[in-house]
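Appendix B. Chain record.
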Amino acid sequence: MKKIDPKLTGRIQEWLNTPEKERDIDAGATMLLQLTNNHALYNSVMRAPAKFAAKMTYELRKYLKIRLDHMTMADVVRLENEVMPKAAETVGKTVISTDDEITEAEAAGRRADHDQLPPEIQALWDDNGPRIRKIIQLFNELKNMYDQRPCDRYEKVKMLGELDKIYRANLEKYDAYVPGTADATAGTPTVEPSADPEAPETTVDIAAKVGNARKNLSKYRKQISELADEDPKRPKLIMKMQKTVDFVLTSGGTFSADTMTDLRTLGISFGE
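Structure tokens predicted for this chain:
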């Protein structure tokens, strides 16, 4: 298996972090040649650096993202070959109206007892609404990029794969939930954050944090329901609930109408 040279990755980072006017054009062009073996681009940069400097910087940033994910070009191709068929299956199961909006009636799979489910289980379905729209958008964009190189499609493929993984996991948890169980998420798979503390936060990382936030919110709601109106603990608990709601919303999550109505009676705001 081809290994990634960490020294080259470090040099690319250092070059990109250097102020634009202080960058060594020859060094940048040489590194790009090592990455792409594109002699025509190398010659163009060396002949007219002012004209091709932006192109060189773009290419180096693109390859740096791939290398920081510890991916080779073979890995990139393999990832796309895994992601696209799964996404095609997901998209194929979704009925879309002519205005590209997915209504509850069109999104097959909504449980008949949805409104009676715990908030964190309802959220699994509700959050998947905007997620499937993004999946369809990315999938169609990638189909139209068939003539571009795998490295140019990588960012979209990576995002599509993460979104599809979360979408499927949410549906599995939603479908498997049995009313009356002590823990609404017991026995269901969890999404683990990235193991690399220096890696950029991914969609999967964010989804894991949003899931934990929803569990905390359910815990806070139970706690506050057991407190008297004059209990001094209530203001602090409501503040925690507001911060939790804000985090879920800013991370792209949503709440059911019933949950929002319930929380508003406590003074929780939803950014109105």
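Further analysis of this model is presented in Appendix C.
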